[in-house]
Design goal:
Residues 437-457 are annotated as: Disordered. This is MFS transporter. It is a multi-pass membrane protein. Its main location: membrane. The protein is mainly α and 457 residues long. It has one domain (13-434): Growth Hormone, Chain: A (Up-down Bundle). It is built from 21 helices and no strands. The protein has helices spanning 11-46, 50-78, 80-98, 104-132, 138-147, 149-178, 183-193, 198-209, 214-218, 221-224, 228-252, 255-262, 267-294, 297-317, 331-343, 349-356, 362-378, 380-390, 395-399, 402-415, 430-434. The protein starts with 10 loop residues before the first helix and ends in a 23-residue tail after the last helix.
Length: 457
């Protein structure tokens, strides 16, 4: 049989791909996660309410849905690499511009533009990576990319707290947002050193030469996701990501405020707590990445979710516990650590979504579904303060609206079909394309269409 395109990249090209994807995702998430540390400063500087400043994050995440659909389409039509470059440039420029906002609406609009850029980065990078990597190690590689979230989280806490302490309430948040311009440097690296997906190049060649069905060449990729057999897997995938993102943002956005403002925890203790949680979370990403290659995609989602449920149970039990000088006896440390372990469920998302869809709609599907989940997650920063008020004014109580979302994620993880090891080459997708627009791998859940080609990496 012909050699898989995943085995035709040089070591340098593979390194360039995974490093670019890791840095891209880290910079993407950094730009989102630094906002919670800047929220008190923004609230003070612009004289707005907690609900208004929290909704800024919602604007960013809602914009990412638009970006996910736009740049996903671009990735399927013009290539994964081109889409990745455009999206990095937009969110870098938008982030720098948002540092010069003068009121709530200017900041909300500029962060919405940032969100459009952020929306395409993850999908373009993740699809490119999964189309170039050894199918037997795809789960671990995807987890390493998602694991760069620990770098993003640590840097966001360090830079965010430092910027406010160094430059004060009125200028600190502006300095913090200016650091979001870093992706411009990554754009240059990608332009000159990162290769395009050969699977996409081969599919594009077939499309241009008329070797794929006319229905595939003319179909709207976004509409295709909701037709035929794909409609079912798209619906479950949306529920899956909505559950994850709503739970994640219900906690991650308000954890710094809970520690710093509500519980009056010393900033040094908060920094150590978040760094420890990030390190543990990073190890969990790697371990779960290996596990979802060894035991399947479902395993890599369900097991971390159980840690989430434990974290939320402890949050309920330890509501209002102040820091008493010992990190090890402080419940918030263990809540943060368990929640970080639960976050590693995201490590399986890129591989699983990429394996669920045929190449003609893969970038659109991965970007749109992921960012639609983010959009639902964007509602969490609005709902948490409302829930807290309705439940007596305790922020921790409001954050517990994450619980039903975690349960929803768990249920969807048990429903999605298993796809571990599926080849993503253009020729391996021919059977799916022949049945377009509805082809999906193994809707029965066994993942039978696995790679049978050369498996060396």
């Amino acid at each position: 049989m012909p050699e898989s395109s995943a085995n035709t990249y040089t070591s340098f090209q593979r390194t360039a791909i995974i490093v670019s994807c890791m840095l891209g995702f880290a910079l993407d998430l950094y730009d989102v996660l630094i906002m919670p540390y800047l929220m008190p400063s923004i609230q003070h500087s612009l004289s707005i309410s907690l609900t208004e400043v929290a909704s800024i994050t919602s604007c960013t995440l809602f914009g990412s849905v638009v970006g996910g659909a736009l740049f996903g389409w671009l990735g399927d039509r013009m290539g994964r690499k081109a889409s990745l470059q455009f999206t990095l440039g937009l969110f870098a420029v938008g982030s720098v511009a948002s540092a010069f906002a003068w009121d709530y609406w200017s900041l909300a609009i500029l962060r919405f533009i940032v969100g459009i850029g952020l929306g395409g980065e993850w999908g373009a990078g993740m699809v490119l990576f999964n189309e170039t990597w050894n199918p037997r190690r795809r789960g671990l590689g995807s987890a390493l990319i998602q694991g760069s979230a620990v770098v993003a989280s640590s840097c966001a806490s360090i830079v965010g707290i430092w910027a406010i302490a160094r430059f004060g309430q009125d200028m600190g948040w502006r300095v913090g947002l200016l650091t979001g311009g870093a992706p411009l440097i990554l754009m240059i690296f990608i332009r000159f050193w990162m290769p395009e997906s050969k699977a996409w190049i081969e599919f594009d060649r077939k499309r241009r030469s008329g070797e794929v069905p006319a229905a595939v060449r003319t179909a709207n990729p976004l509409a295709t996701l909701f037709r035929g057999r794909l409609a079912w897997v798209t619906t479950v995938s949306l529920v899956w990501l909505i559950g994850y993102m709503f739970c994640y943002y219900s906690i991650i956005v308000f954890m710094p405020t809970l520690m710093l403002k509500v519980l009056a925890t010393p900033p040094e203790a908060v920094q150590v707590t978040m760094v420890v949680a990030s390190v543990v979370g990073g190890v969990s990403y790697i371990v779960m990445g290996w596990c979802n290659d060894r035991f399947g995609r479902r395993f890599g989602a369900v097991v971390p979710c159980l840690a989430w449920l434990g974290s939320l149970g402890l949050l309920y039990a330890a509501n209002g516990t102040h820091y008493a000088g010992s990190l090890l006896s402080w419940p918030l440390l263990w809540i943060a650590v368990l929640f970080a372990v639960g976050n590693s469920a995201l490590g399986v998302v890129g591989a699983w979504l990429s394996e669920l869809y045929p190449i003609n709609v893969r970038a659109t599907a991965v970007s749109t579904i992921y960012m639609a989940g983010r959009a639902a997650g964007s509602l969490a920063p609005v709902f948490v303060p409302v829930a807290a008020s309705a439940l007596g004014g305790q922020l921790a109580d409001g954050m517990l609206i994450a619980l039903p979302a975690a349960v929803l994620f768990l249920i969807a993880s048990l429903i999605l079909p298993e796809t571990r090891g599926r080849s993503l080459d253009a020729d391996a997708a021919d059977a799916d394309l022949a049945g377009a627009p509805g082809g999906i791998p193994d809707a029965g859940g066994r993942g039978d269409r696995i790679a049978t080609k050369s498996q060396h990496a």
